[in-house]
Design a protein that fits this description.
Layout: E1 2-5, E2 13-22, H1 26-35, E3 42-45, H2 54-57, E4 62-64, E5 91-92, H3 97-100, H4 115-129, H5 140-144, E6 158-165, H6 178-181, E7 192-193, E8 199-200, E9 205-209, E10 212-218, E11 225-231, E12 237-247, H7 251-260, E13 285-291, H8 297-302, E14 305-310, E15 313-323, H9 325-331, E16 336-344, H10 349-362, H11 370-374, H12 388-397, H13 399-411, E17 420-429, E18 438-445, E19 451-456, H14 461-480, E20 487-488, E21 535-537, H15 552-571, E22 583-584
Parallel strand pairs: 1-9, 2-3, 2-12, 2-22, 3-9, 4-19, 12-21
Antiparallel strand pairs: 5-6, 6-15, 7-8, 10-11, 11-12, 13-17, 13-20, 14-15, 15-16, 16-17, 18-19
Length: about 575
C-alpha cells in the first residue's frame, strides 16, 4: 500500500482506478483491507491527512435545526487517516434478533437481512476490532467460567446485556485505530511522483490524502457512476475515474455528498424517490436513574466489568440490562439497555495511582487521551484533579483498600471497585425510524463550495416512554431483590424535559437505509444504490433500524460482506472494471 497526497500531485490530475472508497474510517478501511490482494485496483480517498488539521476539520460544519445535538464536531467526526476511529471508545456489541424484524408497532422497521445472514461476517469482524467471542447475553457466563449473576431478574421483563471493548493491534490499551491497525502500512513513506505526473504505487490498494470528494459523477442519465471529483483545502483539484464508488464517510456525510451531487439529477444522485438523508437516527443517551454511592457496592459488583483472559490477551466486557423482547412486544416499546456510569471520588486510591503512573511516564501532567475525548457525555465537573502529593498520600492512607483490590484483580479477574462520588444508570435507546428526521443541504457553503449539512434530528415520545419503562422496571426489580434501588430521573415522568436531558452519542444512522424496494430504501441488500449502477454505500447510514448497541461491529461486518460482493462481482464481469486509463492509481 502506498499513500499519495493530492497536494503533491500535478494540478488537475486525472486518476483511474476500479474501486474508489471515499473515507478511511472503520467502513472504508475494512473494505480496503478485505480487497487487498485481490485483482481489483482500489483507491481510498481521505479528506484529511495523517493527523487532524483545523482547515480540514472545518468542513464538518453543520447547521442544526432539530433536536439539540453536540455542537463541537471535533468530538463527533474526524477527517484524517482512520476517520472517527481515532476518537471512539471501542464499545462493541451485536444487534439483537428483534432489531432485524418488521415490528408492527415500529413504523419502517425491518432489515432485508437476518441476523443469521450477517453472523458469519460479525465473526470475521472480530479480527479487525481485536474482540473476543461475540457473546453479549447469558451465554457469556459459561465462557467467563462463572455462574450467571444472581439472583436472576425476570426474563419476561429484563434481560442481561453485555458490551465488550475493542483492543487495538498497535496499542492494546486502546481500541482499534483503523488508520494504523487496519491500514498499517499507510503510515509509511509518502509516494513519489514521476515527471509525467504518474503516481508510483505498490500493491492493489493505495490511499490518497487531502482529497475531499466534492461531487459524485455519473453518466448523462444519472444511472451509472463514473467516478468522483476531489479537492484539497489548498485549492488542488483532481478527477478520479472509477467503475465502482463506495461512499464510506458516515451517515451525515454520505447523505450530504449524494444530495450535493446534483448536476445531472437535480435532486441528487440516487435520490429519485426522495429518500436520501431521511430516517436520521442516533442513540439518544441519558441518565435515567441514580444510585446513592454508599449503598451501591453490591449493584456495582454485579453490573461492573468482567475480564476474559486468554492467549491473545485480556478482553473486557461490561454487564448491563435491557428491556426483554417480550416486554418490547407486549408494551410496544423500543429496544433499549442501560449500564452503570461511575465517577471516581477525589480520594479514590486506584485513580490516584493511575494519575501518578501517568505523570511518571509522561514526565508531567497526565495527557487527555482519545478515549477521554470520546467520553463527551460524561459530566466534566465530576472529574477530580488533585496534586501529585495528594495522590501519593491517598495511596498510603488506603493500603488495605489497594490490597483488597489487588486480590480481586488476581483471583477474581475483575477490576477493583473504586470509591465513587456518583453512580448513574445510563441508557442508550433505539429510535423509531422517522422520515422527517433527516439531513438536507443548507444554503451555506463550506470552504470547497459544497453546501453544508442541514441536520433536522427528531426524537419521539416513544423513545422517552421506552427509557422511562426501563428505569421503572430496574427500580422495581432491583429493589425487590435487595439491591440499592435506582431512583428514576424526575424528567422521565413528563415529556417536556425529555429532549433537554438526552445527548446524541455520535452514532448517526439511517440516512441511506437498506431495503429490497427502491421505494423503501436508498440501497439494496448488497449496499448498492438502487438507481445508480456501481455506486455503493458502506457504514451505519445503511442501517434500517438502530437497535440500542454501538454500531461499529455491525459497520465492520457489513463492510466485509460488501467486499465479498465486490470481489464476486469482479470475477463475474458484472462491471466495466477498467475505465479508459489516464493516470493509474
Amino acid at each position: 500500500m502506498t499513500v499519495f497526497d493530492l497536494d503533491k500531485l500535478p494540478p488537475d490530475t486525472e486518476l483511474t482506478t476500479e474501486v474508489c472508497i471515499v473515507g478511511s474510517g472503520p467502513a472504508g478501511a475494512t473494505l480496503a483491507a478485505e480487497l487487498a490482494g485481490s485483482a481489483l485496483r482500489v483507491l481510498v480517498v481521505e479528506s484529511g491527512g495523517r493527523e487532524p488539521e483545523a482547515a480540514v476539520a472545518a468542513l464538518n460544519e453543520v447547521e442544526n435545526v432539530g433536536a439539540s445535538r453536540v455542537a463541537d464536531q471535533d468530538l463527533m467526526r474526524t477527517r484524517a487517516l482512520g476517520g472517527t476511529s481515532r476518537i471512539w471508545t471501542g464499545r462493541c456489541a451485536e444487534l439483537d434478533e428483534i432489531d432485524y424484524v418488521d415490528r408492527p408497532w415500529v413504523a419502517h422497521s425491518g432489515w432485508p437481512l437476518t441476523g443469521d445472514e450477517l453472523r458469519p461476517f460479525l465473526d470475521r469482524a472480530r479480527t479487525y476490532l481485536g474482540l473476543g467471542p461475540n457473546l453479549y447475553d447469558d451465554r457469556l457466563w459459561a465462557l467467563l467460567g462463572r455462574r450467571p449473576a444472581g439472583p436472576p431478574l425476570p426474563e419476561s421483563r429484563l434481560v442481561p446485556r453485555f458490551w465488550q471493548f475493542s483492543r487495538g493491534a498497535t496499542d492494546p490499551a486502546g481500541p482499534t485505530r483503523f488508520g494504523v491497525d487496519v491500514l498499517p502500512r499507510a503510515a509509511g513513506n509518502d509516494a513519489e511522483v514521476d515527471e509525467p505526473g504518474r503516481p508510483v504505487g505498490s500493491g492493489n490498494v493505495n490511499v490518497l490524502l487531502h482529497a475531499t470528494v466534492t461531487h459524485v459523477d455519473t453518466d448523462d442519465t444519472g444511472a451509472v457512476v463514473r467516478g468522483v471529483e476531489v479537492a484539497s483545502t489548498s485549492g488542488r483539484q483532481a478527477r478520479i475515474r472509477a467503475a465502482v464508488v463506495v461512499l464510506a464517510g458516515g451517515a451525515i456525510e454520505n447523505a450530504r455528498l449524494m444530495l450535493a451531487s446534483n448536476r445531472v439529477v437535480p435532486h441528487g444522485v440516487g435520490n429519485r424517490n426522495d429518500l436520501v438523508g431521511r430516517f436520521l437516527m442516533d442513540h439518544p443517551g441519558s441518565v435515567i436513574a441514580s444510585v446513592e454511592p454508599g449503598s451501591a457496592r453490591r449493584l456495582r459488583d454485579r453490573f461492573g466489568r468482567y475480564w476474559l483472559d486468554g492467549p491473545d490477551g485480556r478482553q473486557v466486557y461490561i454487564h448491563g440490562v435491557g428491556l426483554s423482547p417480550r416486554a418490547q412486544r407486549d408494551e410496544e416499546l423500543l429496544n433499549c439497555a442501560a449500564f452503570l456510569e461511575e465517577y471516581p471520588a477525589t480520594g479514590d486510591p486506584w485513580h490516584a495511582g493511575q494519575r501518578l503512573a501517568s505523570r511518571l511516564r509522561g514526565g508531567g501532567e497526565p495527557a487527555q487521551d482519545e478515549v477521554a475525548l470520546a467520553s463527551f457525555w460524561r459530566r466534566e465537573d465530576e472529574v477530580p484533579d488533585p496534586t501529585p502529593g495528594r495522590d501519593a498520600l491517598t495511596l498510603l492512607r488506603n493500603a488495605p483498600t489497594v490490597a483488597a483490590g489487588a486480590y480481586r484483580m488476581t483471583r477474581r479477574h475483575r477490576p477493583p471497585i473504586f470509591q465513587a462520588s456518583r453512580v448513574d444508570v445510563y441508557c442508550l435507546v433505539e429510535q423509531e425510524p422517522d422520515p422527517a428526521s433527516r439531513v438536507t443541504l443548507s444554503d451555506r457553503m463550506d470552504g470547497l463550495g459544497v453546501p453544508i449539512s442541514r441536520v433536522d434530528w427528531r426524537v419521539s415520545e416513544r423513545e422517552r416512554i421506552s427509557a422511562g419503562r426501563l428505569a421503572g422496571l430496574l427500580a422495581e426489580e432491583l429493589g425487590r431483590l435487595g439491591y440499592a434501588s435506582p431512583e428514576p430521573a424526575d424528567w422521565l415522568k413528563g415529556g417536556e424535559a425529555w429532549p433537554e436531558n438526552i445527548i446524541d452519542r455520535a452514532h448517526p444512522i439511517g440516512t441511506t437505509r437498506m431495503a429490497d424496494s427502491p421505494r423503501a430504501g436508498v440501497v439494496d441488500r448488497n449496499c448498492q444504490v438502487h438507481d445508480t449502477e456501481g455506486l455503493f454505500v458502506a457504514g451505519s447510514s445503511t442501517f434500517p433500524t438502530a437497535g440500542h448497541v454501538n454500531p461499529t461491529l455491525t459497520i465492520v461486518a457489513l463492510a466485509i460482506r460488501l467486499a465479498d460482493h465486490l470481489k464476486a462481482r469482479g470475477r463475474a464481469g458484472q462491471a466495466a472494471w477498467a475505465p479508459s486509463p489516464s493516470v493509474s492509481s
